[in-house]
């Protein structure tokens, strides 16, 4: 393998870590609620801005991740329980809900854009020295980002497999009707999913800004298709699937970038999402096998 | 503001209004009548605009200062037809994948992402249509009849745009009121049932997708000859959302209502603010416009998902049945007690496109 | 008059399997329905009844097995092609075109494939006008027969559950079907309409249409069906007249657990 390819794989792993944090959250949220919540992207943006503002006020370093998580939870709660659930109560279908979430995305994104004067903001974070590993190059910060992703993954898996709430969560994602019939408090479980996914979205936003060192009102929206692709490719509701798919997508897009330039890597990332949506069995099989129920 | 600049501005608004009404009719055929959530509609307008531009810019030279493919000189009407064909052809290609039977929200997401991909692609591959800078110096057509640098030309062009609008309105009304239009609406409300009654649903969707794409291409061609320039910023995915909101506000599956909706959204909300004294930094007004459009969208979905002006009821008298003595439908619904709850629930659910 | 069953079966389902991933919803079912016969399918929830009906209607692609209509293999035909061969169906959740009037619902059914043809609607407008006139006359007849004339200009989404069911059945009759598939045709229907519907189902069968019906209400099954098939876990566990299957040991076990 040429060194360019190996290096790209290294960059891909870093990208995949950021993608996977967001994708795990989206996967949980989408798997449980069945709502294709495009406004998830703005939560990332808000998380990243929270980190930026925290830095301006002198809170620096990894504390920003906690602040981002908190902002993510609040924003997701407002969007999910405040807006989407209100619309779902009016008996709107899957399509109307995706349009509402898109409208929320538009409103929040351009409100931020209007408030911040359409700027690109710089964030500073010491990236540490470069480390070499099997021909790949990582900075200390990048290794720490990978660590955050691995940590989030391990924590989530433990939660889902070892705790009562986690098991109930998986049951609701698999078979909402059955779970309700078995007496699982669906609405409480869905609330847990909103909180978890919000925290993950916020963390993803902060990790993104730590890595790229810039943020604008459009950061989350631009990054969103990659998260969606990973979450849906890895099967909605499956955390492990989201992580594996994130790795594949992160590495694939970096390889495309190495060959064709960064513009094409964005195209490749978005292209993967389109292919995944077209090919995903849940997306295309016959009407009777489709899950159309929304749980909010 | 002097008289001549007001005159200039008014003519521009009339042209833009016409172009926006055209696109809204195209999208209304797809979304309002057929239930296709075409979030990449603006892409087909762009296809028409770029096609019309390169077909009249002439071959690219070292001094033209912009890069593009297939430059040539064709007459204005041919360029417009080619713009339509480009919109239709691109629709046909995308339709093959996107018109398959699938979850409505997946389909919406696919079309939205396609719009992002294609825009990014044109930005990245500058050899096609000059990247972000886009194409400029498109010459105004019909210069031999009216001097193109006068407001007289602008008004003449506005008249042409609206004449084309009249023709397109006639066509879309004929189509949407035909048996084909009825089949479209039927599959929008329940695709499996329409198929079970012998309608080829995929073919129906494909046809309306291509027809809508042709109208989008035509609107793009008309727009580029007026603006004389076109770039990637003119066709962000948000532009499609503005057309959607015009339809939601004006009337889903109501082509007259769509004119009103387009006027309210594209003219009152988008164009008039440009007349106001500029405040804040450059771009603040634009950003606020999108915030308002998003809020309007949510309000429209919350209050009346079928549009403010509803679809026209087609009465059986049109088909030669004797006139009906009005019996209030409510009385009949009340005649089936115990059904009321389910009835209400379905009423709410029936607002949207087919959700199967 | 011929008794049902004397005729060659109109629809023959042979060793049909429908699977979702690892789950076999329909597991080797063989049934047939003759013209003029009503075959009732009963069984507990999840027995595979709806999947069987969907496979016959073309909404689901079977994993293996064969479906023949009038002796022709239709297993791989899409729903709209089967519809053109005389298959109509109702859906478990009623399938009215909500934002079309009752009359338009009937017109769409009456015109069928011609209605969905862009060519017929534009270039062939004259022939289409003739077809539309025929369909409108037929719709007027059906509206009178089902006493829904006052509702003809009402949007279907404004109807009661029972009236929606009537519209579905009328839509089927607009097509002069050979095979009618009914998925729980009396569920959510007010008692007086249910009676009317049951009479209509018998009348439809009497006109020579083969009817395949899923129904939970045993009273309806007893009244309407000529023959009954009991399904459990994707397989047929009993077949015969209503009285015969109700006495079967296998059926009692399936129902009582």
Q: In words, what does this structure look like?
A:
The complex is a heterotrimer of chains A (296), B (356) and C (257). Chain A has 296 residues and is mainly alpha-helical. Chain A has twelve helices and four strands. Chain A has a single domain, classed as Orthogonal Bundle (ABC transporter involved in vitamin B12 uptake, BtuC), CATH 1.10.3470. In chain A, the strands form two sheets. Chain A has a two-stranded antiparallel sheet with strand order 1-4. Chain A has a two-stranded antiparallel ribbon with strand order 2-3. The longest helix of chain A has 31 residues, at 3-33. With 356 residues, chain B is mainly α. Chain B is 66% helix and 0% strand. Chain B is globular and about 70 Å long. Chain C is of the alpha/beta class and 257 residues long. Chain C has two domains: 11-96 and 159-256, P-loop containing nucleotide triphosphate hydrolases (Rossmann fold, 3-Layer(aba) Sandwich), CATH 3.40.50; 98-157, no CATH class. Chain C has helices at residues 49-57, 79-84, 102-115, 118-122, 125-145, 161-174, 191-206, 218-224, 242-247, 249-256, and strands spanning 11-20, 23-33, 38-42, 64-69, 72-73, 87-89, 179-183, 210-214, 227-232, 235-240. In chain C, the strands form two sheets. In chain C, strands 6-7-8-3-9-10 form a six-stranded mixed β-sheet, with helices on both faces. In chain C, helix 3 (102-115) packs across helix 5 and helix 6 (161-174) packs parallel to helix 7 (191-206). Chain C starts with 10 loop residues before the first strand and ends with a helix. Chains in contact: A-B, A-C, B-C.
Question: Main traits of this protein?
Answer:
heterotrimer; B: mainly alpha; disordered C terminus; C: alpha/beta; 6-stranded mixed sheet; 10 helices; 10 strands; globular
Mean pLDDT of chain C: 88
Greatest chain-chain contact: B-C, 53 and 64 residues
**Total number of distinct structural domains of chain B:** 1
Alpha-carbon Rg of chain C, integer: 19 Å
Low-confidence parts of chain B lasting 5 or more residues at pLDDT below 50? 331-356
Rg from alpha-carbon coordinates of chain B: 22 Å
CATH homolog superfamily of the largest domain in chain C: P-loop containing nucleotide triphosphate hydrolases
State mean pLDDT of chain B (0 to 100 scale): 82
Quote the distance from N terminus to C terminus of chain C: 42 Å
- State the share of residues found in helices of chain C, binned by percent: 40-55%
- Total number of helical segments of chain C? 10
Along the chain, the helix and strand elements of chain B come as HHHHHHHHHHHHHH
Helix content of chain B: 55-70%
Number of strands of chain C: 10
Could you give the count of β-strands of chain B? 0
Largest sheet geometry of chain B = none
The total of helices of chain B stands at 14
